[in-house]
Amino acid sequence: SWTPEHFVDGMVASLQRTIGETDQVILGLSGGVDSSVAALLLHRAIGPRLHGIFVNNGLLRKEEFESVLHSYQGLGLNVTGVDAAQEFYAALAGISDPELKRKAIGRTFIEVFDREAHKVEGAAWLAQGTIYPDVIESVSVKGPAVTIKSHHNVGGLPEHMKLKVVEPLRMLFKDEVREVGATLGLPENILHRHPFPGPGLGIRILGDVTPEKVDLLQRADAVFIDALRQHGLYDKVWQAGSMLLPVQSVGVMGDERTYERVVALRAVTSVDGMTADWAHLPYEFLAEVSNKIINQVRGINRVVYDISSKPPATIEWE
Ligand code: XMP
């Protein structure tokens, strides 16, 4: 019968045979569970000949780049963190259309990844965290997202650099990937992380993306996610996040009239992301989060909760 321990032993031996004793391997890390588990398997097989590349696209959650990079380093992985936030902001400047934002983010990712990958001497392999559901069906994300997904898996690169592809998780389902990750010592914060879209906050800021809006949304979102954890609700929902809406509304603060932004909170329950129900979070919890965001995040004076299910709504707003 299948056990994560047997899988690890078999896969490590197989990776060693396939890759050999001298080849270098490149892997794009996202902070998600799949790429992280793929990295740990390869690390066990070939040690520092695995070169992880973790790109900060400036669209991650608050302090996520630093904390995830720190986790990777704590696991002994040979990882380069590349802070390319400004490059992504420049590519996104003035773009409001969701599809065009995805394209700009995907294109910039390839440019950055490509540049970093070329710095690895003797690179012969591109490793990917592809899992079985990715293999059998085109992923259930909106049209261009599929392109982004393949961008994130750096589809163009192998041809360009003549890299061979290695995908150690190809035969696993998500729950098996998590079991393997637990066996390999992947920390909780990565093991049980909610799904997070490749284009990140770029598709949770409706309208054009600016560094100021990213900062605003990151701070509001951190209040929401921290509160979910504190109340033991984080693991009860499939995914949660915050959307920055392109409208301002009137409020009062002290004697002053304010005219500031609206944040929509979104939390859903789901088994696979294909269909989803809005999470029936307790009113008291929502009240606390709303108060905290409005009091702590200047520039936001109104919080709403999304009560739409998928279908006909989608999980993301863009
Ligand atoms: P929707 O919004 O289509 O999202 O209900 C379903 C799941 O897919 C994620 N998602 C994406 N993931 N690139 C990704 O890698 C994308 O462009 C993208 N768009 C949506 C979403 O977070 C949810 O888990």
From TrEMBL:
<feature type="domain" description="GMPS ATP-PPase">
    <location>
        <begin position="2"/>
        <end position="193"/>
    </location>
</feature>
<keyword id="KW-0436">Ligase</keyword>
<feature type="binding site">
    <location>
        <begin position="30"/>
        <end position="36"/>
    </location>
    <ligand>
        <name>ATP</name>
    </ligand>
</feature>
<keyword id="KW-0658">Purine biosynthesis</keyword>
<keyword id="KW-0315">Glutamine amidotransferase</keyword>
<keyword id="KW-0547">Nucleotide-binding</keyword>
<keyword id="KW-0067">ATP-binding</keyword>
<protein>
    <recommendedName>
        <fullName>GMP synthase [glutamine-hydrolyzing]</fullName>
        <ecNumber>6.3.5.2</ecNumber>
    </recommendedName>
</protein>
<keyword id="KW-0332">GMP biosynthesis</keyword>
<comment type="pathway">
    <text>Purine metabolism; GMP biosynthesis; GMP from XMP (L-Gln route): step 1/1.</text>
</comment>
<comment type="function">
    <text>Catalyzes the synthesis of GMP from XMP.</text>
</comment>
<comment type="subunit">
    <text>Homodimer.</text>
</comment>
